[in-house]
Amino acid sequence: MTDAAIRTTGLHKTYTSGGRPVHAVDGLDLEVRQGEFFGLLGPNGAGKSTTLGMLTTRIVPTRGSAEVAGFDVTAQAVDVRRHIGVVTQANTMDRAVSLLENLEFRGRFFGMSTKESRGRAMELLERFGLAEVAGRLDDHVSGGQSKRAMVCRALMHRPDILFLDEPTAAIDPQARRNLWELLRELNAAGQTIVLTTHYLEEAEELCDRIAVVDHGKVLTCGTVDGIKASAGAETVITVSFDEPADAAAQIAGKLDGVQRAEADGRDLRVHATAPADGLLGELISVGRDHGLSVRNAATLPPSLETAFLNLTGREYRE
Ligand SMILES: Nc1ncnc2c1ncn2[C@@H]1O[C@H](COP(=O)(O)OP(=O)(O)OP(=O)(O)O)[C@@H](O)[C@H]1O
């Protein structure tokens, strides 16, 4: 493999829908390093699945280029496939055979002997907590177990890069945390992982670096902290009073560290530069000075959500 696990240059995919062009991916330049846990984050319809489809050779780019594991996705598609593992959004387990057999067949497909394939399958099933259900059909295990089995199957041939498309979209919160833990362990052991997600929290929890995409373009790319800093993400403090907050908002807007303050009925909303230590107490005092009693107060730390808001001027739609 070259130094970069993935490199795309001016990657485009244009579909035609109802006679009109849909620019699903609109000039994507990306680089993913070996060993990275990389996230493609964006709201529904942003172009994440189409990007993943092109990187995994399932979708042919309209123009531009992409190299995955050192191979061109169009000219060397077979080589790319040998070096990647893919976990799709939809369940693609063979429902007629057991989880173990699903994995074994994949190993055989990639040229392993029967013994080698069974050994590797059992090793993975044990590592992913599936040994006890190895003999079951996919229909007879939980959604989380089924997804974990798909990850195991994708790892059978020891791929350089593991791709996951919205891996936790349809599983319950506990199974989601469990899968996060396993993916973290895999990455810590050196596995390069690329996932798409529309969950801000998932990207924040797992990824070393993130590309925030919308309308087929990369809005920003970097570490979570770097994105928050460059997008000017703010701490948002809301203090709810028993009376209208207008007068308090006027005073609050002049306090140190406050970028802007607004009254929303009885709520005072203050956008502050992080860290906003001590500001909440000051805001409560301002309210008290105006004879307002506090009903509630909440501090929202800088997040990818506030960064997205600043980048696009729109709220993030999950
Ligand atoms: N086969 C297709 N034909 C026409 N338009 C398509 C096709 N596939 C996707 N699109 C459109 O391309 C855009 C990007 O879709 P894509 O599925 O890549 O986004 P996404 O970020 O993965 O969204 P989701 O999270 O909903 O899967 C959307 O506007 C979608 O409607």
From TrEMBL:
Membrane topology note: Peripheral membrane protein
Compartments where located: Cell membrane
SMART domains documented for this protein: AAA
Domain ABC transporter: 6-240
Entries under Pfam families matching the protein: ABC_tran
GO molecular function terms attached to this record: ATP binding
InterPro entries recorded: AAA+_ATPase (IPR003593), ABC_transporter-like_ATP-bd (IPR003439), ABC_transporter-like_CS (IPR017871), ABC_transporter_ATP-binding (IPR050763), P-loop_NTPase (IPR027417)
SUPFAM superfamilies reported for this sequence: P-loop containing nucleoside triphosphate hydrolases
UniProt keyword list: Antibiotic resistance, ATP-binding, Nucleotide-binding, Transport
Keyword DNA damage included in the entry's annotation: no
Top-rank taxon, per record: Bacteria
The UniProt record lists the keyword ATP-binding: yes
Family per similarity comment: Belongs to the ABC transporter superfamily.
Stated name of the protein: ABC transporter ATP-binding protein
Organism annotation: Streptomyces musisoli
